[in-house]
Write a structure and sequence with these properties.
341 residues; alpha/beta; Rossmann fold; 5-stranded parallel sheet; 15 helices; 41% helix; binds 1,3-dihydroxyacetonephosphate; binds iron/sulfur cluster
Length: 341
Amino acid sequence: MTTDTTHSIEAIRKEWGTRLLILGHHYQSPAVLAHADVTGDSLELARMAAASQAARIVFCGVHFMAESADILTTPAQQVFMPEPGAGCPMATMADDYQVEKAWSFLKRQGDDWLPVVYVNSTARIKAFCGRTGGSACTSSNAPRIFKWALDQGKKVFFLPDIHLGLNSAHDLGIPDEQTAIYDYQKPDGGLTPEALKDVRVLVWGGYCPIHVNFTVADVQAARQNWPDAKIIVHPETPKEIVRMVDAHGSTAQIIHYVQAAPDGSTLVIGTESQLVKRLAEVHKNRLTIKMLKGSFCPNMAKTNQQNLLRILKDWPDRNQVKVPSALIPDAKLCLERMLAL
Ligand code: 13P
Ligand code: SF4
């Protein structure tokens, strides 16, 4: 951590006071999080953005998170990213053309579907979801949002993360036979009307490259190396692994699990490495924390103290995240339905 940079950032924060809000996702480095007003998971940060009165919000995370902040704030508030090229590859795995095509296919089958969209998606997909009566979700509330849709007698069309979709259905006790995968690279998702008949949850075939790194063999090795350890993973991890481990949850839920662990225990964590490293350091006098496997998100790592200071000094236009105004009303509906549930 360069002290000059740290001091310069803090001096600008002091000068701006409450007119500036810096939000930091749990996967950011400790050097960046040291300057955040709030650190949280996707849900907590969306809530903070929605409640904020700050004139400028700086989002240290990835692009879809900053887009959600822009959607949830007023037109007078501005949202910036230290590095706007920090995207989430999963969010680009569902484009609106493909999704509209899938939606008309589902409507043609005559069943009553409701979309549920993971916040790791573009503003266009959120607008589609808002327009068609659906809701957003995050990894900490996905089963609750699925239940909201199912309780209305609807079938859930979930996108874009195949794994969060299948894990959330399983959390609600929905058998695998009542789930199916929409393969967006195939006509009609590779599905026939017959195959959809008993399906209650249909999931898009997107994924997080960081969390699909974890394998059954990694869990077996961890059990052998640390037989008394509890293992917890993020629900973007494939279902075979989630079903073998002790717990799963969003980044905030993983942090709470660690905080609640008895002194002297060993935990193995399967999520982005930056967070696991930080937890191991914070709790080193009380717990032994191991990585299920190293898996860095290169996009989360694009934000650093240098580019944070650069925007705070110059506020370049290219760093402002601005969702087209035509998309805002529907995308806002999609996010606000989630925040209200
Ligand atoms: P959380 O909502 O759990 O923080 O997850 C965001 C994310 O991108 C996980 O890969
Ligand atoms: Fe996207 Fe995965 Fe990185 Fe999260 S960890 S931002 S889902 S690529």
